[in-house]
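INPUT
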Amino acid sequence: MDLLGDVAGSPLLRRALFEVVLVGALGGVVGTHVVLRRLPFATMALAHATFPGVVVAHLLGLPLVAGSGGMAAGLALVLARLGATSAVDASSAAGVVLAGSTAVGVVLAASGPSPAIDLSAFLVGSVLTVAPADVIATVAVAGLIVVVLAALHKELVLSTFDPEAARAMGYPVGRLDVAMLVIVALTLVVSVPAVGVILSVALLVAPAVAARQWVSGVGPTMALAAVFGAMSGVGGLAISHRWSVAAGAAMVLVAAAIFVLSVVAGPHLQRNGRSSPLTDGA
Amino acid sequence: MFGDLLAPAFMQRALLAATVVGIVAGCVGVHVRLRRRAFVTDALTHTVFPGVILASVGDYSLFLGALAGALVSVGLLATLRARRLVGDDDLLAVVLTAFFAVGVVVASRRDSFAADIGAVLFGRILTVSSADVAQMALVGALALALVAALHKELVLRAFDPAGAEAQGYRLGALDLALDVAVALVVVSGFKAVGTLLVVALAVTPPAAAWLCTRSLAAATAVSVALAVAAGWSGLALSAVASRHEVALPPGATIVVLVTLGFVAVLAASSWRRRAQLVA
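OUTPUT
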């Protein structure tokens, strides 16, 4: 196949391939928790929230990752705090954070002295210009996240499925929620250079939902989601290489295809039916 | 001072556009808040993207392209929701990113890529024409008519879904109707103010209003007032800033102000709550 041959000869492509496999797999693993804890919209908000961080970092001459990571982590705390109060529902909180942070980013970018940051790369990614430093960052963050998720596995699963019991047993459910959002924020920070803001959310949702159609149990779901995520990365890169379309978008479309196939053909071992009339939006 | 700032025709049109969006988004947004489905609004703003891009490639009306994209995605969501296989938020996330990806693929084969995305996200409120404003008002009025006609049913469905079902209402159909209303809000506003602003005005003012009152009528009034006030002050602030050689993009400024308004309301309401507990 074209891609394999070219990869052998091009360090750029090798890096891109490695990056998309990592980002895809990480997305699948973290995405399992995103789906189980009903965090897709919060994830979307955090993805947008990286934008002002990038702008501020750019204006201050700091590494962009520091800006996006700091801003996303900070807003993860805000989201967790807002979600803990009963006054504002989780959905509105995510919406306010999403719109507000993007607007702040736009205002800062416009009033700053330097020319506008490449908005399109931020939105849709630019995997072929991923630098070795980005790959190293991805490996480091992925390693850290996997270790944390493994260490907190029991607590996370219990607080997802039975928060009352978790609280009664003395687990700090609130802090687990914050930790989860920060993990999502870190995943987004390393995914955004590869696939961009909006599409990184896809890699955090679609592979995990697809995996849930085939296997039950959190561990197996994470493993299969990682596989689906990596497949989306490789498939998307191959399509992008062959037909000269944006790589990030191609990856999302592969992930969506896997999702559709799984929903249609999978054995549906777990009922995902959270969209019953009584629980819709609750 | 404001007289000469706001006098020019383009500014008058911008103020009118902001008012229209504020009223429409503020009203429909309250119903979305009741159902806690702010995600739908954000999702639909991304799903119009491929429709807009395809329309601009084929030189059709951008407005019709956006409408087609929004209605297709609303229909798709309704059919997939009926299957009950996937959670609502997950479905929204996948559909919105897939549609957006389609738009990106189409746009990436053109040169004006960045400009396309920029225009869709942020709109051009200072360059709206009278025809644009008329179009916005018409589509916005349709959205308002839809939620007004179904007001009681939508409220019942939000607060007592089991009761609504028992009375024979089809919840799926009501959800579809609200989604269509949101789609109309997005389509009415995106060209002038951009998708970002539509989301902000449809989510933030209702959230702030709901902190002040639990009466639906009062909440709608507060929501619309906040949205329109943010629109006008954002435009005024942006105009003043440009006088002093500072670039404050009007759309983004409006969103920042409405967010600050929300923060103020949140702070006030939590102080009040704390005061009540102490007293």
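end of record. The two ends of chain A are 48 Å apart (CA to CA).
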